[in-house]
Amino acid sequence: MTPSDPPFPTRRAAREEAERRATAAIAIARPEAGRRRSTFEEPGLDAEEPPRDERGPEVPADERGTEPAPLPSRRARREGPRTDLRALVLRRRLAVAAVGAVVIAACAIAVGAAASAGGQDATGQANAAGPEAVASVQGPPAVPAEGLPVPTLAAAPAAATPCDNPTFTAALAAKDDGAAIAAAGGGAAFRDAVASGIAPCVSLNDPTHQWVVVNKQRPYDPVDWRPDDLVMPDGVRALEQSAMRSSAAKALTTLVRAADDAGAGEIGYLSAFRSYATQQETYAGRVAVGGVAAADRESARAGFSEHQSGLAVDIVPCRSSCGSLDDIAGSSQGAWVRDHAWEYGFIVRYVNGQESVSGYEPEAWHLRYIGPELAQAYHDGGYETLEAFFNLPAAPGY
Ligand SMILES: [Zn+2]
Fold it and tell me: 49 C-alpha vs ligand 1 centroid, how far in Å?
């Protein structure tokens, strides 16, 4: 419209005014839609019945304020508003439809949020913001976790066993224990596989491997088995001519040197490998002194001793001369060994409080070589017996 346009006829002016008011009605409806987006207060019913102030434009008295004199005839007053009313109603219905669409969209969003929050609950990772967000929309109740579709997972695939790994089995056959453990994924992975029973190709009875477990329930087979790679450890004071398997002998040399370097003092040893025949004599001597029961608490019967594996050693503290086995527990050497022996592949095999599992009273002097990888897993896992480490039955007696 330009300033030169002629003035509208009265009816046209009224229609323009009605359109303007209808537009205003739509503008009013939009904040309503915004409010309902966050409250969900029965949108359908409420939208069909607009608030009284929205119906204001229908009131003729309101139109009179915009109409110039003279007043229209009664018919004109009746017909004019009626025609404009149709347009107004049409627009209002359009507005209601728009509000409805917004409400439906908001419902969809709210349901999605509720489902999402329920899903988090179902996975045990409830998000603190989830339930709060659902409450704020006051819409449909949150879908309970048990009502959500739970994805059906196929049966968990069997854990991979190192026995299917050609690298692992080749290392086993070659008696290369370090390479086998590496192929299994390290000491902890090897331990897990064996302890869980998924690695039947690994025998804990086989004394040719550093993971052999010997106790009062697990004798050697054959009972007089002996290793074929016995050597004397270099640089270690030996009180008896008692050798060890080469891997254990090298590790003992390293351990003794490290203890000395750390200021813990010299470590010597009394006895390492003992043959089946030697163990018979040892055990018989103990029985002669204290009887069978006492002998069994302190000494193994022939065929059941870790010393026969060539992987065990009884250490003593030394200065100018060496002390006894009983002296190690209270010595600086004994303290260092408790903390650091695992770093060199050894464990203190018989510790306090485990006699019902290991079968022996604590022996602070008796170290057992299981290799650095397994010793670390043993230490890191906080194990106190090899039986627990490999999930084997306790062996309190024969
Ligand atoms: Zn011993």
Answer: 94
Among the listed residues 350, 366, 369, the one whose alpha carbon sits nearest the alpha carbon of residue 358:
350
Tokens 């009394």 belong to which residue? 270
Query: If you measure from the C-alpha of residue 270 to the centroid of ligand 1, how many angstroms do you get, rounded to a whole number?
Result: 9
Supply the pLDDT for residue 42.
37
Position 115 scores a pLDDT of 41
Task: Give mean pLDDT in consecutive 10-residue pieces for the chain, a chain of 398 residues.
Answer: 44 58 48 39 38 41 41 46 52 57 50 41 36 46 58 66 97 97 98 98 98 98 97 98 98 98 98 97 95 92 97 98 98 98 98 96 97 98 98 97
Domain boundaries, the chain: 10-147, 203-389
The pLDDT of residue 158 is 64
Tell me the three state secondary structure of residue 245. Answer: strand
Report how far ligand 1's centroid is from the alpha carbon of 381 (Å): 23
Which distant-in-sequence residues (6+ apart) come within 8 Å of 268 by Cβ?
236, 237, 238, 239, 315, 316, 317, 318, 322
Rg (CA), the chain: 45
Residue type (1 letter), 308: Q
Distance 203 CA to ligand 1 centre (A): 23
Domain 203-389: CATH architecture, name and number where available: 2-Layer Sandwich (3.30)
Cα 213 to ligand 1 centre (Å) = 14
Q: Tell me how far the alpha carbon of residue 245 lies from the centroid of ligand 1, in angstroms.
A: 15
Q: How far is the CA of 364 from the centre of ligand 1 (A)?
A: 9
Ligand 1 centroid to 264 CA: how many Å?
21
Separation between Cα atoms, residue 47 and residue 58, nearest integer Å: 17
Looking up tokens 């270690």 gives 236
**Separation between Cα atoms, residue 191 and residue 390, nearest integer Å:** 6
If you measure from the C-alpha of residue 315 to the centroid of ligand 1, how many angstroms do you get, rounded to a whole number?
8
What pTM, to 2 d.p., does this model score?
0.62
Kindly give the distance from the C-alpha atom of residue 307 to the centroid of ligand 1, in angstroms, as a whole number.
Answer: 6
pLDDT value, residue 142: 59
The CA 350 to ligand 1 mean position distance, Å, reads 9
